[in-house]
Specification:
The complex is a heterotrimer of chains A (271), B (386) and C (129). Chain B is mainly α and 386 residues long. Chain B contains 14 helices and no strands. The mean pLDDT of chain C is 90. The chains are: A alpha+beta (271), B mainly alpha (386), C mainly alpha (129).
């Protein structure tokens, strides 16, 4: 087929006109995402700690006490101003001021961390979009930590088994990692393989956190994003994070339906 | 030729012994680090790269700077550099070895380091940096071995060496460019996300490296009959001057962009470096010393009267090296992490074991440098007696 | 050759010393200890593959399992012996039967002075003495 300069310019113009711009990048299968409904978290919520504890115990995460230097965390809380630095301003809505939010790996669609890994010890799974870790291969160069704009990754500065909370783990527990490798949230890939929800989502009683496949038009996460205003962390960087935070006014929770009914949703749409 | 490094007078062996003591201490610390983990360094969840990687960054520049001597001599037949090239190459080799050692001691799992070659990842700049550095080491060892042994036999070097030498010129530029790419392609680190980082790296490399070379040439002149030549040293001094001037200009460009745009993400790192942030101001005095030394160095080097006076030149070169070492070896890397992507200010300072391991690596570099220079001088010395 | 007798004598001593691992054990009185592997405490008699195959290849098998589970998210293994399906898991499958690491895994590994790094991360069941 002969391509002329004219033909090329026509094609380029069409492509640039934005027909491709609002389509999500293609994935081979699922696009797993997390929706955190900030309306449902209050400032002193025990649930925040429950989510963190669920993850920490499901994954044998070491707790070194008051030692920020060696801290390992996969999911943790920060206040709204820290998590969404570019979104906060002085006269922001009262409920968002100082509001604690849950942060974790965003499992970006365009992850800078996997781009920089020199050994493919971390990569984005084509089948469902989980950004995975291979702790057998990681050389501990920490380049992925440098590249992550969200501070999601932790390094094992020392042997995690020296942490007092990990004494006496048996073979039914998740393997600990060794000193010298980087770790982070994996969207509970071991639970996904068993058809379960991530540990932090499971302890939610009223769908404060919802997890699912954005490529499925019927999924809960898809519905939530079409019905509510959601923001993402540092969205301008082009990383396309897949953790969304609903920031609608919490008073809308009461307006949609009486309190009891809001929390009864159909099963289905969960992955 | 290696046997030449094994003979020497009392001061030679005292120096070697001193280096071995430092190396021994550092190796012991490293074994401790290998068993305890990198927790014995000052690094933390937010400042994950520190003194080791900063030294690596500085030394890659020194390694690349051999090209500043090789290029004029081999590409433009600048005969005055004839004696200097071996000194330059024999500086590049220990510099690359030290780079590799600094990376090695910074790894969480150093026993797995071959994974970089077993599972190549062309999308990663770190993969390419490993390839580039390894290749550069091989290139320099091959080039210097064959030129020196040819010289010893009083023959011209083999013809096939010329294309390899010419290859080392863009290769030298590329090792430091790819190291800059490690930093300058990261959306997460606005302090490093600047197109001028690679040019700045190269400018500071081409100032610091030849400055070190001049200092070494002065030292060699003191302890042997080897004289690189007035013309060579003065030409190198001009290279240092221009490179330093360009480097300072580039730094000022960075300062302007950050401060005039007043974007907090950019300003905060400069603020941390020069004024301190949230009470963290360990680096501020260092950065001011670096800046003042840079100005003083430029004054001494730009003025031909002081540049051509070898006492002033020595002072100027020391100022250049120290200023640029602070800039790359302390400021640049650490400031990328403070404040963190979440805006947190975390304290970092190298711990004693971290410093001990670093001193040991510098000692290993000096040991290799000593041995290589001893060999080179002996070969040249032999020629002189005949 | 200068000092031929001394050199030859020295070489002979060196040769004897260097080959000592080969002949020393032949002439020692006591037979070598053999590693004792404890049979699975839960009474299982069938491993994932045949015993001889496992003896020779368990390292490779575990590496394959590791890559398959972690990198490919494929967690089911089909035995070549009998087509049975197993979950590819060191902790949940292997250690389910071979639950006493010190009297199974370690017996051979200690004997052969091999230190696999599995146990840096993977956890063993409480061991019944």
């Amino acid at each position: 087929m002969k391509s002329s300069r004219r033909g090329f310019l026509k094609f380029a113009g069409l492509s640039a006109s934005g027909t491709g711009e609002h389509e999500p990048p293609a994935t081979e299968g699922k696009r797993l995402a997390m929706v955190v409904d900030l309306r449902k978290f209050s400032k002193n919520d025990e649930l925040l700690q429950k989510c963190v504890d669920a993850c920490n115990s499901a994954h044998s995460i070491p707790d070194f006490g008051d030692d920020p230097k060696n801290e390992v965390k996969w999911i943790w809380t920060e206040n709204f101003e820290t998590a969404f630095h570019s979104q906060e301003f002085h006269f922001i809505r009262e409920d968002l001021k100082g509001k604690p939010t849950l942060l974790m790996c965003n499992h970006c669609d365009n992850p800078p961390c996997t781009r920089v890994c020199p050994t493919e010890a971390t990569w984005k799974r084509a089948a469902d979009g989980v950004v995975m870790m291979d702790w057998h291969r990681c050389i501990g160069c920490r380049y992925c930590i440098v590249a992550c704009p969200y501070g999601s990754r932790s390094f094992n500065w020392k042997d995690p088994r020296t942490a007092p909370n990990l004494a006496g783990l048996g073979s039914e527990s998740y393997p600990t990692r060794m000193r010298g490798v980087v770790e982070k949230c994996t969207f509970c890939d071991e639970r996904l393989a068993r058809g379960e929800q991530p540990a932090c989502v499971e302890v939610c009683e009223n769908q404060e956190m919802v997890f699912g496949d954005l490529n499925d038009p019927e999924s809960e996460v898809r519905q939530l994003l079409t019905e509510h205003l959601a923001i993402r962390r540092k969205s301008g960087l082009g990383t396309q994070p897949e953790v969304y935070y609903i920031v609608d006014d919490p008073r809308t929770l009461m307006e949609i339906a009486p309190a009891a009914e809001v929390y009864e949703r159909e099963e289905g749409g969960h992955d | 030729m290696i046997e030449k490094a094994l003979s020497g007078g009392r001061s030679y062996w005292t120096w070697i012994f001193g280096l071995l003591v430092v190396i021994g201490g550092g190796v012991a610390c490293w074994f401790w680090q290998f068993s305890e983990g990198l927790t014995i360094t000052g690094l933390s969840r937010d400042v994950v790269w520190g003194f080791y990687i900063a030294q690596f960054t500085f030394l890659v520049g020194v390694a690349a700077s051999a090209v500043m001597v090789v290029l004029p001599y081999y590409l433009h037949n600048y005969k005055a550099f004839g004696k200097m090239t071996i000194l330059g190459e024999f500086l590049a080799i220990p510099a690359v070895i030290m780079c590799m050692l600094f990376i090695f001691v910074d790894m969480g799992m150093p026993n797995r380091i071959l994974n970089v070659f077993l599972h190549p990842s062309p999308h990663s700049m770190m993969f390419w940096d490993t390839v580039a550095l390894s290749g550069y080491l091989v290139l320099n060892v091959v080039i210097s071995t064959f030129t020196l042994s040819a010289e010893r036999r009083e023959e011209p070097p083999p013809k096939w060496l010329k294309p390899i030498i010419l290859l080392s010129i863009p290769w030298a530029v590329s090792i430091h460019t790819v190291t800059a790419f490690l930093y300058s392609g990261l959306a997460a680190r606005p302090f490093w996300l600047t197109a001028i980082l690679a040019p700045r790296f190269l400018a500071s490399a081409f100032a610091a490296g030849p400055a070190i070379l001049i200092l070494l040439a002065f030292f060699v002149r003191r302890v042997s009959t080897f004289d690189a030549g007035r013309q060579a040293i003065d030409a190198l001094a001009k290279i240092v001057t221009y490179a330093m001037a360009i480097n300072v200009f580039f730094v000022l460009m960075e300062v302007f962009t950050a401060l005039y745009s007043d974007i907090p993400e950019h300003v905060s790192h400069f603020q941390f470096l020069f004024m301190g942030l949230d009470g963290e101001n360990t680096l501020a005095p260092w950065m001011w010393v670096s800046s003042i030394l840079a100005i003083i160095a430029l004054i001494v080097l730009i003025n031909p009267k002081t540049r051509n006076n070898h006492s002033w030149l020595l002072f100027g070169c020391v100022a250049v090296v120290f200023s640029l070492w602070i800039d790359k070896g302390l400021g640049m890397v650490i400031a990328g992490f403070v404040p963190s992507p979440l805006g947190k200010v975390v304290h970092y300072a190298p711990t004693a074991p971290e410093l001990m391991i670093s001193f040991a690596i510098y000692a290993i570099g000096l040991l290799v440098l000593t041995a290589l220079y001893k060999i080179a001088l002996e070969v040249r010395g032999q020629l002189k007696k005949a | 050759m200068y000092d031929a007798s001394k050199i030859v004598a020295g070489l002979a001593v060196f040769a004897v010393l260097a080959t000592s691992p080969l002949w020393f054990n032949q002439i020692s009185a006591a037979p070598a200890d053999e590693p004792e592997l404890q049979a699975p405490p839960n009474g299982a008699t069938q491993c994932v593959e045949a015993t001889e195959y496992m003896r020779a290849n368990h390292m490779d098998l575990l590496n394959q399992w590791r890559d398959s589970v972690v990198r490919d998210d494929q967690r089911m293994y089909v035995s070549k012996l009998n087509g049975k399906e197993y979950v590819m898991s060191l902790q949940k499958t292997c250690l389910d039967c071979h639950s006493n690491k010190s009297r199974f895994c370690d017996s051979c590994h200690t004997y052969a002075a091999v230190q696999p790094y599995c146990w840096d991360c993977h956890l063993v069941p409480e061991e019944a003495q």
